Amino acid sequence: PNENATMSTESQSYQNPLVKRYASAEMLQIFSDDNRYRTWRRLWLALAESEAELGLNISEAQLDELRAHLDDIDYDRVAEHESELRHDVMAHIKTFGEACPSAAGIIHLGATSCYVTDNADCILNRQALELVRSRLARLLGALEGFALEYKELPALAYTHFQPAQLTSVGKRAAIWAQDLLLDLKEVQFRLDGLRFRGVKGTTGTQASFLRLFDGDTDKVEALDEMVTKKMDFEARFRVTGQTYTRKQDEATLHALSGLAQSAHKISNDVRLLQRLGEMEEPFETRQVGSSAMPYKRNPMRMER
């Protein structure tokens, strides 16, 4: 088999035992090696461009060479370097430098590993939240149509899962939509609040950049701002250590947890209603409900 083809395919999609069952192709691409490490190269380019604009000895020819090699990552060469260096960021710096020999000396100039790793995480998490927002908005649109279509179709409501009073199928769907709308607002709130780590040096003091710019604090501050803007962020953390605060990641997970709770409620409702015969998820012509009991119509989509 062609090992390079295998490597190329694997680099284009995030690898995890659960992904084939649960993740979309779009989300896998966001967290793929290709997207992550191409983002690293774009971060190195943004840093070099900004340093050049602020007066460091970096030529346009060097920048052009970096621009020409943002996407052609030699993963075999990265693996060779990493087996020797035992450091993933340095392995990528070496590989990028080999593709851009005249610019090798300006790659990662003044930066620390977390400049690329943490800032890339901020970028990828934003891309993922944007995908969630888009799909959630489409889901709400579909659910609105369903609720309006069946707003007058009577159904039995339950308390304690015991028969209670009449409701409608549309009303039940409106409850689901209300939860999802709250989730959409929370996702948007988190997106609006996402910050970039920025250009902070090894421990957040920017000491390496102060040396590069001969103690000119204005240029160091400008560098931080310029790279932030080049990577399409409106805000950056004013204070960091080596890493940006993981409170930002926790806030993102909080929004996703809320969405997961809504999905669980909806799927559990449908699962129970399918048992009662009031509502049923699609069941395809050749679909099998059980290896031993093929007559079963299991709500596998809701359970998944």
From TrEMBL:
Of the GO CC terms on this record, one is: cytosol
Instruction: Name a Pfam family for this protein.
Output: Lyase_1
- Mind listing the GO molecular function terms for this protein? (S)-2-(5-amino-1-(5-phospho-D-ribosyl)imidazole-4-carboxamido) succinate lyase (fumarate-forming) activity; N6-(1,2-dicarboxyethyl)AMP AMP-lyase (fumarate-forming) activity
Q: Which residues form the Fumarate lyase N-terminal domain?
A: 26-303
- So which residues are the signal peptide here? none
Alphabetical UniProt keywords: Lyase
Name the UniProt record assigns to this protein? Fumarate lyase N-terminal domain-containing protein
Which species does the entry assign this protein to? marine metagenome
GO BP field: 'de novo' AMP biosynthetic process
